[in-house]
Structure formats: structure tokens, C-alpha cells
Amino acid sequence: MKSIELNKVREYVERNIGTFHAKRLQSLETLKLNQILKRKNPYLFKAKNVLTAHDLVKNLLDAFLSSQEETIFGEFLEGLAVYICQKVYRGRKSAAEGIDLEFERDNTKYIVSIKSGPNWGNSSQIARMKDNFRKAKRILGAGSSRPHIIAINGCCYGRDNRDYGDYVKMCGQKFWEFISSNTNLYVEIIEPLGRKAKERNDEFNEKYAQLINKFTMDFTKGFCVEGKIDWERLVRFNSSIKKPKET
């Protein structure tokens, strides 16, 4: 086992965080109003008594972007975790389906499915992860000389740490310490994430403001009558069997 220098972590973050920001910006540049109108629940916003086109568009866009950012940043954190474990335990990206990381320590092989946070999936998604663990154990455990194999659901933040029998869930501090042997790594990685964030966010916010203004105008033309939101037209666009006219 080797320890990892924080400078190496900083260097990795600075080399790769730009990809997160680029994908985040790209998600705005390629977005169309009809995409978010089709994917979000119009009944919810009616029940919340949203009255203006601007508020409705902003709520829809923010909900869409929040989901997108979780996915994009989750991919970045997964890469960071694999990089750190590689430096400390010679960990590697696994070839097994659904397994993000594998490494050996003290004659034990660990197979790890990395998620952003503890509340990442429904029962069917968790069942699929468990099935992936079973398949990986069967393949990697073939032969009596193979080490003992333990499955880990590693979550990059949170406190939901428990042993489920067929796999162990590790979150937040416990997960980062598990792959690095550094008790404080979960705190230490926060500082380099913020470097150059302001200028990246300034660029994003400018594009975001332009999109809010454009989508508000488009929505007003397509789904407002005499200054009021036409909820029936919006619901038909969102949910009708007949293919809706694109906006």
C-alpha cells in the first residue's frame, strides 16, 4: 500500500474538472424547450400554483439541470475514486458488468459499485447491482487460489454505512478512507474542486440567463393565452397520445 499525496489529487482534479463544466455547459447549449416540457410533470406545477411563464420555465429548467448535473458530476467523482485507489492499492476499472472498481488488499479482493450518494436507486436498480455483484464474484472467484471477494457499494457522500450481507454499503468519509487509507481525504478533496469555479460558473450563468429568456418567450407564444398559462394545451403537449407539435 502507498499513500497518495494531496498534490496528486489536486493535479487530477484540475486536469479533469474542466470536463464536468464543459458537459454542464453543453447540456444547456443543446437543450430544447420541448425536451423539458415533455419530461417534467405539468400537474405538479399546476398544483404549486405557478402563474407566470418565467417561473414555470425556470422551475422546469432547474429541475432538469439538477438531474443532469448529478449524473455528470457522479461520473467525475467515480473517475477520481478509481484514480486514488489506483495510486494507493493499484486499483483498476473493472471489466465486469456494473462494477466500477476492483482492487486487492490483505488477500481480499474488493469489487466496488460507485454511486454519487446513498439514495441513488429504487428496488429494481439495487437488485440489478446485487445481481452484478453475484456475477462478478462467480467469474472472479473461479479457482481455489483466488482471494476472498467482498462487494462494496461505495457512495461519495452521506452517512448510510451498513452491512447488507451480500454487500457492504460505505458512504462519505468511510468510503474515501476505504479506497485511500486517508481519514481526512473526504474533506481534503473539497478545496481543489472550487478552483476556477467562479469563471466557469460565470460562463454557465450567462448561457443559463439567455436560455431562460428564450424559453420564456417561446413558452409564452406556444402555451399562453392573453397572458395566462394554457394548462390544458400544456398537458396535451406533455401527455396526449397524438404526437404534439414541436416547440
Would you write up a description of this structure?
This protein is α/β, with parallel strands linked by helices and 247 residues long. The protein has two domains: 1-90 and 196-247, type ii restriction endonuclease, domain 1 (Orthogonal Bundle), CATH 1.10.3250; 92-192, type ii restriction endonuclease, domain 2, CATH 3.40.1560.10. It has helices at 6-29, 33-39, 42-47, 53-89, 123-140, 173-180, 185-188, 190-193, 197-223, 231-239, and strands spanning 101-105, 108-115, 148-155, 162-163, 168-171, 224-225, 228-229. It is elongated and about 75 Å long. The strands form two sheets. The chain has a five-stranded mixed sheet, sandwiched between helices. The chain is built from ten helices and seven strands.
Secondary structure layout plus pairing:
Layout: H1 6-29, H2 33-39, H3 42-47, H4 53-89, E1 101-105, E2 108-115, H5 123-140, E3 148-155, E4 162-163, E5 168-171, H6 173-180, H7 185-188, H8 190-193, H9 197-223, E6 224-225, E7 228-229, H10 231-239
Parallel strand pairs: 2-3, 3-5
Antiparallel strand pairs: 1-2, 4-5, 6-7
Helix pairs in contact: 1-4, 1-9, 4-9
* Number of separate structural domains: 2
Strand content: 5-15%
Shape field: elongated
Q: What is the level 1 CATH name of the largest domain?
A: Mainly Alpha
Helix/strand-derived class? Answer: alpha/beta
Low-confidence stretches: none
**Biggest β-sheet, characterized?**
5 strands, mixed
In DSSP terms (H or I, runs of 4 or more residues), the helix count works out at 10
Could you list some keywords that capture this structure?
247 residues, alpha/beta, type ii restriction endonuclease, domain 1, type ii restriction endonuclease, domain 2, 10 helices, 13% strand, elongated
